[in-house]
Amino acid sequence: MDHDCIVIGGGLVGSAVAYGLSRQYQKVAILDGGDRSFRASRGNFGLVWVQGKGWDFPPYAQWCLKASNLWPEFSRRLGDETGTDLCYQRNGGMHFCVNEAEWDERKRILEQNARHTGGKFQYEMLDHAALMEKLPNISNAVVGASYSHQDGHVDPLSLLHALHQGINRQAVSYVPDQAVSDMRREGGEFRVVSNGKDYTAGKVVLCAGLGNQRLGEMVGMNIPVVVERGQLMITERIKPFLDWPTLQVRQTGQGTVQIGDSHEDVGLNDGTDPVILKKIAQRAVSIFPFLARVRLVRAWGALRIMTPDGNPIYQKSEAYPGAYAVTCHSGVTLAAIHAGPVAEWIGGKNEDPLFNQFGTDRFHV
Amino acid sequence: MFKTIEDHAADTVGITVEGVPHRVPANISVAAAALLCGLGSVRETPVTGVGRLPYCMMGVCFDCLMKINGQPNQRACQVMVAADMTVERQLGAAEFEEF
Question: Do A193 and A245 sit in the same domain of this protein?
């Protein structure tokens, strides 16, 4: 057997899982895609987020809070090991409401979030006057915001870079430009065929984003994947004006302002659309009017990896013991949990009952 | 360090660079004018504060960002000089009040 574990996919999910596995196993390999692969890991917003997540699915609310609580230690260790500044901050985060209906809906959702976590998720609703004290540049049109001190943000590209440095230091074998064509279990080990070459391992972990549906079929798992495009843009650098990341606007550690986002059903198309970008920009300007005069330097689209209910999938193959799948759209927030508890679960050392809630059987009732 | 080709120097305009009045050829970019006026650097980067000079002179490298007529973060190589223009070094990131 060449390897203890083969992780298929080297984005934020695959590299975080491999980083965790490399602490338990000597021989871990990543088979990654190529430059033409869809890469959610290189196009996302960088939030380490709790508020609003899992408001209609209690296990996910608890899961995100757990991940968020693991992040400070995860970030410190990864940063120390690799010397990379992740620009991780946990000052709390906000979501702006631009009318009363949004405010009421936000309040309702976050009350559920708090209930699902037994009150461990903590938040407050800031009315316009309270918000003005924190953000004097805010538009009068903003009714208020929800705020949770448990939210944070990170530079997502630095995170991906640091994870790759981390796995490299742990001697994980990283193989780029791969296309897996076959996978089978023979005599107690998996044989993965990629670019015509065989790789053998005791365990395989599918972390291939949109590719997990096709790969899952090879090892007896039905993993439903839904694609959703989000568009983002980024401005020139300006001096810090926003200490808190928000779902609509985030100022990065180096001063640029990320503005998002959209939720579009356009299939496997990660391009941009000026009509949508205009709407996104108008919303940002309706929150911070001065942004109308700040120049944009780039805009891009990226494809989210969604599931039918939007919540992650953690699944062991029943038919092929030793095969696992990890599918989620929240590779940044969940990186801390993937590098820790999820890697331990794959290694048979973590039996958190929450894992049973994230199986694919919830889609096949 | 830089010399103008004589034909180009025929028409000139008066501009102010870092508070100092200069006469420069009328048909050149602000980046070229900054070099001609002998600025040691046209900006200090927002991330490390290091001084930079124009590099590509064609709008792609963003290393010539300057404050032109009070507007921060302008690519000086993409703006032609004009009479009475005010040109200043861009020191770090722009303040949002400047927009």
Answer: no
Q: How many domains does chain B have?
A: 1
For residue A192, what pLDDT is reported?
A: 98
pTM across the whole model: 0.92
Q: Regarding predicted confidence, which is higher, A109 or B47?
A: A109
Mean pLDDT value across residues A290-310: 95
CA atoms of A161 and A274, how far apart (whole Å): 30
A330 lies in the same domain as A218: yes
Query: CA–CA separation, B80 vs B33, rounded Å?
Result: 9
Give SS3 for B23: strand
Last residue of a domain, one of A148, A172, A189: A148
DSSP E strand stretches across chain B: 12-17, 20-25, 43-44, 51-52, 65-68, 71-75, 86-91
* CA dist., res. A296 & res. A236, Å (int): 6
Tell me: do A221 and A314 sit in the same domain.
yes
Q: What pLDDT, on a 0 to 100 scale, did the predictor assign at position B7?
A: 64
pLDDT, position A287: 96
Structure tokens at A345: 């679960």
- Same domain, yes or no: A320 and A284: no
Identify the CATH number of the domain in which residue B44 sits: 3.10.20.740
Could you tell me if A289 and A252 lie in one domain? yes
Q: Are A228 and A304 in contact (CB under 8 A)?
A: yes
- What's residue B9's pLDDT? 56
Looking at the predicted structure, is the pLDDT value of residue B10 above 90?
Answer: no
Domain assignment of residue A187, yes or no: yes
CB-CB neighbors (< 8 A) of B95 in chain A: 238-239
Partner-chain residue, chosen from A238, A254, A295, that has the shortest CB–CB distance to B96: A238
Residue in A239, A242, A287, A288 to test binding to B, most B beta-carbons within 10 Å: A239
- In this complex, is the C-beta atom of B4 within 8 Å of any C-beta atom belonging to chain A? no
Stretch 46-85 of chain B: residues touching chain A, C-beta under 8 Å: 46-47, 62, 73
Number of domains in chain A: 3
Reported ipTM exceeds the 0.90 cut: no
Q: Minimal Cα–Cα distance from A162 to chain B, Å?
A: 19
CB contact under 8 A, A238 and B47: no
Cα of A187 to nearest chain B Cα, Å:
55
Residue-averaged pLDDT of chain A:
96
pLDDT band, very low/low/confident/very high, at A194 (cuts 50, 70, 90) = very high
Chain A residues with beta carbon closer than 8 angstroms to that of B97: 290
- In three-state form (DSSP H/G/I as H, E/B as E, the rest C), the secondary structure along A197-245 is EEEEEEEEEECCHHHHHHHHHHCCCCCCCEEEEEEEEEECCECCCCCCC
